[in-house]
Amino acid sequence: MTTVPLFDCRDAWVDTLVELAESDDRIVAVVNDSVGSSKLGPFQDRFPDRLINVGIAEQDMVGVGAGLANGGKVAFVSAAACFLTARAMEQIKVDAAYSNNHMVLVGQSPGMAYGELGPTHHSIEDLAWLRAIPGLTVIVPSDPEETAQAVRWAAQHDGPVFLRVSRMGVPAVNPDGYTFVPGRAVTLREGNDVTIIATGTVVTRALDAARLLEQDGIDARVLSMPTIKPLDHDAVLAAARDTGGIVTVEEALTSGLGGAVAETVVRHAPVPMRFVGVSDAFAPTGSIGWLLDHFGINAEGVAEAARELVAR
Q: What CATH code is assigned to 186-310?
């Protein structure tokens, strides 16, 4: 059996940030005592005067990033996603989005990646919260190449961006020559019977589910959705009309990607849907693998949701 290599997307994020900073002295990093967990050691070593550590003060951290943006810098504000979003939501809303500052909010180790640290450290609400904020681009890369391209895009985008960077090992899922474009889904597998739309770390689980469904004679389309906002409405509506049913998959509350897709479908092309993710619950304590299985965010769970749609 061939072992598929897994990658930590934080490595791609910091390698790309260092590369960009070499040629752009506007780029700075702001952290909340999280140099290690953000893997920003190489950036700090290369640019010690361009990393600002505010300590455990997330609201101040976002405010400092906004101030730097006002001064002409490109601030990458990096922290554990659970603390960046929950503690500093007002600053994200006002200082980043309402003020339309060019700054990149980097949510590290999102979803349930902190596992055994429990509900206080799970970041499963972030996609639902952030997609409600006007003017904020929300990016959830699925693999290292997409992460690197998203960092490059965010560095030149004239506006606020939230970038969700995984620590859980993931395989490369995007095709050779792939180009990240915000608001554009990636068709990883064609299919006519049902569509699976996934984002971030669970895209690979959607692909595994499609292979299980193939054994049942079910032809599943798989779309990777790297941006929750803007959403690729055209791809969603085409999937609804072509396949007649949609399953969404996310390492988050299902009101994130699932809610965004449902809002599009119900207005323009109503079809049955199923939502795979964390429903209305606080995720418990446990390893990341156990937690994903607990909520059915795995190949069999996704395949079963698709089977229910096809059987209607």
A: 3.40.50.920
Closest residue by Cα to residue 110 from 94, 98, 127: 127
Q: What is the pLDDT of residues 218-275, one digit of tens each?
A: 999 999 999 999 999 999 999 999 999 999 999 999 999 999 999 999 999 999 999 9
Which residues in the chain come in under a pLDDT of 50? none
Selecting among 58, 145, 250, 251, the annotated active-site residue is 58
Q: Which residue has the tokens 């959830």?
A: 140
Q: What is the pLDDT of residue 238?
A: 98
Spatial separation of the C-alpha atoms in residues 122 and 113, rounded to whole Å: 7
Domain boundaries, the chain: 9-165, 186-310
Rounded CA gap, 142 and 91, in Å? Answer: 27
Query: Parallel, antiparallel, or unpaired: how do β-strands 220-224 and 186-189 relate?
Result: antiparallel
The b-or-e profile of 172-192 (16+ CB within 10 A means b, else e) is bbbeeeeebebeebbebbebe
Annotated catalytic residue 58: yes
Instruction: Give yes or no on whether 9-165 and 186-310 have one common fold.
Output: yes
